[in-house]
Amino acid sequence: MSLQQQLTALKEEAISKLSHIHTLNELNDLRVEMLGKKGTLTEVLRGMKNLTAEERPVVGSFANEIRDLLTEKIEERKTYLEQAALRSTLENETIDVTLPGKKVHLGTTHVLTQTMMEIEDVFLGMGYQVVDGREVEQDYYNFERMNLPKDHPARDMQDTFYITDELLLRTHTSPVQARTMEQHDFSQGPLRMISPGKVFRRDTDDATHSHQFHQIEGLVVDKGITMGDLKGTLEVLVKRMFGEEREIRLRPSYFPFTEPSVEVDISCFKCGGTGCNVCKKTGWIEILGAGMVHPTVLEMSGIDANVYSGFAFGLGPDRVAMLRYGVNDIRNFYQNDVRFLEQFKVKE
To answer: Could you tell me which CATH number the domain at 111-344 has?
Structure first.
């Protein structure tokens, strides 16, 4: 059989096989079998070495025609198989537009975020500004500017996480107040601010403490600010968050950055002051700490303590939320249990 006859037989065989190919993988195997480097066409063409000089161009031209024809047929079959696969996919994935849509389940704002936003709204309504700050802070701003010099024993109450000797995770949001006092221009009016955010302390891991929690501190500095202004401000906050019938009382306390300092209690919202398990039979619940800004703190911020005075307070939104909703374990707020969190959906 001559080479031309062999090439013609190869063409007819390939075309016959193509009609029985039903997958792209099978098609690729046939292409390699017929046209690959070790394929049938290559094997046939090796016989050209036995042809005369006059026969080689004729056979070579015929071989190229066969190669081009088979390549074209293979591409046609590939296009057909791809279109068939697409039609099959579309038929199997037909969307029934008459079916009811799937309900999209939306999340809600975290209960702690809700509580913080409510507190912010109270103070925004009283003309305060909300100031954010850095969570990684310098020891100087976190402690020294709050009248807590190196080796001060009161630092032990705020044992925290140090990154370096002078860099730490803030233990309160007071550094935001110090930085704001530095920048405030009192010729433009008094300073009224709150500073919400996360704080960190190496607290024991029990039901009422966490190494990370939230704090909102407030600061007012102006001429003639008194303890009466502080009490009136806190009464507004307490009544908005716990009900108009709530009362507050101030008890003497100690904080290095305020003088005088007070602990602030609210009348128990469960028993009304008669004594129960929530207030530990006292009728009062401790809610926050406050006081008049220490003159040293003012002076370190470049504020003349003989001219200006101020008050400051700090409360924990986590504790506020625990009291409002009867949560007895602070860790519930941070464990991301949907069954717990979805109880506090935002009201329309």
So the answer is: 3.30.930.10
